[in-house]
Each structure stands twice: as structure tokens, then as C-alpha cells.
Amino acid sequence: MNNSIALEVKNVCKTYLTKTGNVDALKNITLSIKQGEIFGLLGPNGAGKSTFINILAGVVVKTSGLVNVWGFDLDTNPRHVRASLGIVPQEINVDAYFSPKELLEIQAGLYGVEKDKRITSEILKLVNLEDKADAYSRSLSGGMKRRLLVAKALVHKPPILILDEPTAGVDVELRRKLLDSIKKLNDLGVTIIYTTHYLKEAQDICDRIAIINQGELIALNYTKELIKDNPDLEEVFLNLTKNG
């Protein structure tokens, strides 16, 4: 990890207009993420995490504020921002009748990666799916499908990877393998933004953690600093969000 900034947001707000009035999904979020760190983004359901990620992905338009990703402004360089991000969604959605190798080749084509510059085999090895390269995706276990989603997000070599609940619904052994893959990616210099409801997992893997509740940033610190006067991260989380 170094001190260069991978992602920075300043005073980001998102307000949804509804028939019953305005709903503030994000309220003046300001934070920065360092290159090479694993950054945990935590919060209860409905706290605003998904809205934050969707703004970065270009799926949701922010109401106000500034977003800078890998040196590119979201408003003026949205294509460069998208190219700087690899996003792994929470939902498992892979085509059952294509192999992992075929799916990565298709994904690389969608990103405009030239055939001689594709690293399909390397990515499959990185996520421990090289022995399943030519298998139908429908034959993969849940954990393998999760790792395949990570692989798809890596085809254009993004410097930042966003993982939205990557271990949800995965058993202990498969979760360990997935976390090993994530640590391996981080060791290669990839910046990781990580959301999870498994607080022990976040405590073990994240360098720093931000907690969002009701659209507001209520905590941001190094993991060790957050928990130094508490038994664990769960205690901190519950204390901070109990009035939410």
C-alpha cells in the first residue's frame, strides 16, 4: 500500500425524488481510498452502500459532489473511470452454457481488449479455476461461480476492484479460497473496495474501514484503530449503528 490516492469522493449526495417527498440516500460523503489497500465499506441494509457503488459504476447519477477515480473525474471522463474499475456484483449471474474461458474471452471483447493482449489463462489461474477453464459454467459450485465473477471483472486489468458481498451464501471452505484469491490480487497491487456483512471477515482482511448508516459516513479509520478499545469490529459496528 502507498499513499497515492486511488479513489476520492467529496461531498457526494444522492437524493431520490418520490411521491411522498425526497429521500436522501447519501449525505455529503467524503472519503479517499489509497492505492493498494483493501478498503471495507460497511453498513446495515439500506445504509447507502449500493447507491455509492452504483454511482462509481455509472449506474446511478449523483445529485451533487465530486468523484475522482484513478485521476479521472467521473463527470468529465466517465469512460476512463469505468475502465479503471472492475465490479463484482452480489448476484451470481453467469451464462450456464458457456465455459469460464469463453466467458472471459467474451467479456474481454466487450471491453475492446485485443486478442493478443488478453490474459484469460492467467486470470483463471489467479482465481484457481484453470482446471475448470473448459467446463460448462452450470457445473461450477457457488464458490467457483463467485470466483468466475471476480475473473470477469479483471479482463481489462482494472487497477481498482469493487467486490459487493463476494462471500454471501458461500460455505466456509469456499469462502477461504475466495479470500485467498482476493489477497493474492491485492498482493499484485490491485486496490480492493470490499462490502460484506461478515464483520469478522472485514476485520481480518481490510486495511481501513468506512461505516455508512442512513446515508451518512459515521466512521472511517484503520481497522486496528477502530477496534483497539473494543472486543471486535462487531461490537464497534453495533454501537455505531444501534440508533439507525
Structure characteristics:
alpha/beta, 10 strands, single chain, globular, 244 residues, Rossmann fold, 28% strand, 6-stranded mixed β-sheet, 4-stranded antiparallel β-sheet
Description of the structure:
- The chain is α/β, with parallel strands linked by helices and 244 residues long.
- The chain has one domain (5-241): P-loop containing nucleotide triphosphate hydrolases (Rossmann fold).
- 34% of the residues lie in helices and 28% in strands.
- The chain has helices spanning 49-57, 78-84, 100-110, 120-126, 142-153, 172-187, 199-205, 223-227, 233-241, and strands at residues 5-18, 21-34, 38-42, 64-69, 72-73, 85-88, 160-164, 191-195, 208-213, 216-222.
- Strand 1 (5-18) and strand 2 form a beta hairpin.
- It is globular, with a radius of gyration of 18 Å.
- It starts with a strand and ends with a helix.
- The model has no long low-confidence stretch (mean pLDDT 92).
* Gyration radius, in Å: 18 Å
The CATH topology:
Rossmann fold
- The CATH architecture can be named as 3-Layer(aba) Sandwich
The secondary-structure class comes to: alpha/beta
- Fraction of residues in β-strands: 25-35%
* Helix content class: 25-40%
Give the strand order of the largest sheet, numbering strands 1, 2, ... along the chain: 6-7-8-3-9-10
Q: Helix and strand layout, with pairings?
A:
Elements: E1 5-18, E2 21-34, E3 38-42, H1 49-57, E4 64-69, E5 72-73, H2 78-84, E6 85-88, H3 100-110, H4 120-126, H5 142-153, E7 160-164, H6 172-187, E8 191-195, H7 199-205, E9 208-213, E10 216-222, H8 223-227, H9 233-241
Parallel strand pairs: 3-8, 3-9, 6-7, 7-8
Antiparallel strand pairs: 1-2, 1-4, 4-5, 9-10
Helix pairs in contact: 3-5, 5-6
